[in-house]
Amino acid sequence: MNSFEQINPALIDVVLPMSGYIDDGGDTIDVLKDVCGSASRDFPNSLWIEPSDWADKARDNDKYNTWPMNYIDRFTNQDPTHECTCHSLTRCAEGARNRQRGIIFPDGPKREYRYPESSWSGSVWLSPLSIYAEANPRQWGGANVRQVMEIACRRGFLPETKQPANYAFKHALHGTTGRGNMNQASGSWVSVSRFPEGWQETAKNFRPLECIFPESWEQAVCLVLHGYFVGVGRNGHAIPWGQWNPESQVMAYPDSYDVIRYDSLRTVKSAWQGSFAITTMTIPDDWSNPGS
Amino acid sequence: MRTPSKNETIIAVVASVVGYIVSFLMPTSEVLPTPEQWFVTRDRVVIDSPDVVAVAKNLEPGNYQVFGYPKEGKITEFAITITDKLQPVEPTPPKPDEPKPEPPKPPVTTKATTATYVYEKDDTALIPAVLSGLNRLNREKKIIATLYEDDNTNGKNAIPEQYKLAYDAAKKAGLPVLIITDGTNVLNVVKAPTTEQQVWEAVK
Question: How many angstroms separate the CA atoms of B124 and B129, rounded?
């Protein structure tokens, strides 16, 4: 990946019709720390990088393919639902999990492409719908960050019915009621009461263990430079920041419409509050049997 | 090989002489008994040389010179003397069954199956080169090369089975550390690696 490449201006600060992020001002750092409970972590000093060193760190990430974007192997597609906050959340969770697994996807997510290594590396695709169904039982209207973070940290995600390998999960759920794609299962609306019986036993294996809440936009950039997705809501849409471009001063993110888009520095500076990074997820006793 | 004593040698020589004299007195048509066992000695030492036996059985007594002519290079030559005037040498009795020395055990070459970088997030920022090294181990050496943060657990809030061995070793060594195992034993401990090469060479 080349974080210094020139960016198509048409992809910067794209404002979509309401896609699910409820910006009611309630996603503050204190509230998020509270809802995440024991998973909440302060930004550690070890992760601070002086802004003057950001370009060098970006070159390092380019050389070794260690951007957050390099730790996910798929796009998701929510179109035309209001599931964005949960799609963004699953990017953060899958990225953290694959990073723990030690597997790098050199080109990041690619549209209509499935990495062969996803099948042997234990990559698990998590269902955004498994969180959204509880966050908003009415299906339409979206959810905010604190809602989905609380749900995920409390009981975890269900894996999707579509996976890169046959994990034989006891419980699974399609990923979205939206379009989906070759790496995301689509299906009809499902209320929590109609989840597969005993689903909690599987979901607890895919739960965030540690979440950091940046207290400045610079800390948010530092988290991205260290390979952690930063989930953020702004302009009615939630996305995960996944790569910092020092040249153009933009944040790249894998949008839940099978496409990479960018937030300008101005947007980053205004949107970082209420953002979060998942740094570790629960890990299995056996990576080849992740539901165990 | 036991060297015959002086008395034994004298007896053998006398016996040879007597045998020689008797051979003239005995009818030449006497049929010699078929040997039950052949022995070959060299410098009075019994050696195992069935090829010599095969040749000697079919030759008349005499001095033979053998020459080997290669296509080029030095000619190989040696001499063989076939004689019936044998120095009786007691063949060395077969040694009692001694326990055969065990062949040297091959060096233990246990194959690494896991490489775990154990760290505490609050103290250590992960190094891209190390992450790249883990990725390489996964892809090229086909071992499970992963990160393990100090607070990690499985879905049951316990240390995952696959990490117990590495985690115990890591806590003893001090974090951050790279632990290499074969699933049962710790094979290598590399404290605070900083380069891709260090990670790669930790697994040999």
Answer: 14
The pLDDT assigned to B107 comes to 45
List CB contacts (< 8 A) between B151 and chain A.
209-210, 280
Q: CA separation (Å) from B111 to B78, B132, B136, B181?
A: 53, 21, 17, 8
Interface with B, mutate which of A47, A66, A212, A287 (most B CBs under 10 A): A66
Nearest by Cα to B78 from B50, B55, B58, B44: B55
User: Tell me, what's the pLDDT at B56?
Assistant: 75
Q: Which residue of B has its CA nearest to A209?
A: B152
> What residues of B are in contact with residue A67 (Cβ under 8 Å)?
none
Please check whether residue A183 is in contact with residue A119, taking contact to mean a CB–CB distance below 8 angstroms.
no
Q: What is the per-residue pLDDT across B2-30, written as a single tens digit (0 to 9) for each?
A: 555 666 555 555 555 555 555 555 544 45
Please state, as a whole number, how many other Cβ atoms lie within 10 Å of the Cβ of residue A103: 26
Write out chain B residues lying below 8 Å of A47, CB-based.
121, 125
Residues of chain A in contact with residue B155, where contact means CB-CB under 8 angstroms, are 156, 204-207, 282, 284
Most B-contacting residue of A46, A121, A286 (CB-CB within 10 A), to test interface: A46
Nearest to A100 among B125, B137, B147 (CB): B147
Output the CA torsion sign for B119, B122, B124, B129. positive
pLDDT digits (tens, 9 = 90+) for B110-151: 799 999 999 999 999 999 999 999 999 999 999 999 999 998
Report the residue of B122, B123, B163, B179 to disrupt the A interface, i.e. the one with the largest count of A CBs within 10 Å: B122
pLDDT of B105 over the 80 cut:
no
The reported pTM is 0.78
DSSP per position, chain B: -PPPPHHHHHHHHHHHHHHHHHHHHS-TTPPPPPPS---EEETTEEE--HHHHHHHTTS-SEEEEEEE--SSSPPEEEEEEE-S-----PPPPPPP-PPPPPPPPPPP-PPP-EEEEEE-TTT-PPPHHHHHHHHHIIIII--EEEEEETT---TTSS--GGGHHHHHHHHHH-SSEEEEE-SSSEEEEEES--SHHHHHHT--
Single-letter residue type at A130: S
- d(CA A62, CA A221) in angstroms, rounded, equals 15
Q: How confident is the model at residue A292 (pLDDT cuts 50, 70, 90)?
A: confident
